[in-house]
Design a protein that fits this description.
Layout: H1 2-21, H2 30-40, H3 44-47, H4 60-71, H5 74-77, H6 89-93, H7 101-104, H8 110-120, E1 132-136, H9 143-153, E2 157-162, H10 169-181, E3 193-198, H11 205-224, H12 231-237, E4 243-247
Parallel strand pairs: 1-4, 2-3, 3-4
Helix pairs in contact: 4-8, 4-9, 10-11, 11-12
Protein name: CTF18 protein
Family: Belongs to the activator 1 small subunits family. CTF18 subfamily.
Subcellular location: Nucleus
Length: about 250
């Protein structure tokens, strides 16, 4: 084993010396070389992890539902108005087999019914009724990867925190408020944050209560505030960023 380690170390030094002796590439082609060098030293699970939505291998129904829920925040976060879906007049004028509406819903897919339920349940601030999405399943299923890819696909900056590490409720509250209320100052084109809380099943009950208070109590404060002068304070008290929680044991 010692001889093998020494031989591998010598080979590594030879490769490094040959690489450093080569003529450096132009600055425009330096980035791919850096990416290749970093790819050689990273784990396979990181090297081949999905980078975009189409590379996800997890359940398509779960992927689309989570993306649909995240896109419902566009009005609040990005100021985008919801685009009304165009319905075919022929279908409205002549329903299939002249069936009542209840029987027509039977022909809709599970995803279509879920989308209609999500879109119908928006509060007075144009936010989804459910402010937190919960991904649960056994380890290795791709929950964290799904959350990061979906957040990036929807135009967010994914901010991840581990609920099991932050055992103090005060630290837990500070990190949640920092991620959901403060803007990123890294770069001119900063993106809004999407908070991803991993291992939420390992958080103490006090931290869970703090999360619930941030979701519900501040809604009541926003409804109680009145007048144009208090609008900034009212909006600051509301939860205006999506939160995705991940757990193994529901």
């Amino acid at each position: 084993r010692r001889h093998v380690l020494e031989a591998s170390q010598q080979l590594t030094e030879i490769i490094n010396s040959e690489t450093s002796a080569e003529i450096p590439e132009p600055s425009g082609e330096a980035e791919p070389a850096d990416e290749e060098d970093s790819a050689l030293h990273c784990l396979w699970v990181d090297k081949f992890t999905p980078r975009c939505y189409m590379e996800l291998l997890s359940d398509d129904y779960t992927n689309r539902c989570l993306l649909k829920w995240l896109k419902l925040w566009d009005t609040v976060v990005f100021g985008k108005e919801k685009v009304a879906k165009k319905t075919k007049p022929s279908v409205e004028a002549h329903p299939p087999f002249n069936q009542p509406k209840e029987q027509q819903n039977k022909w809709k897919t599970k995803l279509q019914l879920t989308e209609e339920i999500l879109e119908a349940e928006l509060d007075q601030h144009k936010r989804p009724k459910y402010k937190v999405a919960l991904l649960c399943g056994p380890p290795g299923l791709g929950k964290t990867t799904l959350a990061h890819v979906i957040a990036k696909h929807a135009g967010y900056n994914a901010v991840e925190m581990n609920a099991s590490d932050d055992r103090s409720p005060e630290v837990f509250k500070t990190r949640i408020e920092a991620a959901t209320q403060m803007k990123s100052v890294l770069g001119a084109n900063e993106k809004p944050n999407c908070l991803i809380i991993d291992e939420i099943d390992g958080a103490p009950a006090a931290s869970i209560n703090i999360l619930l208070n941030i979701i519900h109590r501040k809604d009541a404060e926003g409804e109680a505030a009145a007048g144009a002068g208090r609008r900034r304070r009212r909006e600051g008290g509301l939860l205006l960023r999506p939160i995705i929680c991940i757990c193994n044991d529901q």
